[in-house]
Amino acid sequence: MENTSQSQILAQKYMMKFIKRIPVTFVKGEGLRLWDENGKKYLDFVGGWAADSLGHCHPVLVKALTDQAKTLIHVSNAYYTLPLGKLAELLVNNSCMDRVFFSNSGAEANEGAIKLARRWGSLKLNGAFEIITTLNSFHGRTLATTAATGQAKFQNPYVPLPDGFKVVENNNIEAIRKATSAKTCAIMLEPIQGEGGVIIPSSDYLQQVRAWCDEKDLLLIFDEIQTGMGRLGKLFGYQLFGVEPDVMTLAKGIASGVAIGVLMSKERASVFKYGEHGTTFGGNPLACAAGYAVTKYIVDQKIPANAGRMGKYLTGKLCDLKNKYSFIKDVRGCGLLIAVEFDRDIAEAVMYACLEKGLVINFLKAYLLRLIPPLIITQAEIDEGIGILDTVLASFNN
Ligand SMILES: Cc1ncc(COP(=O)(O)O)c(C=O)c1O
Question: In which domain, by residue range, is 377 found?
Answer without folding.
Answer: 6-58+303-394
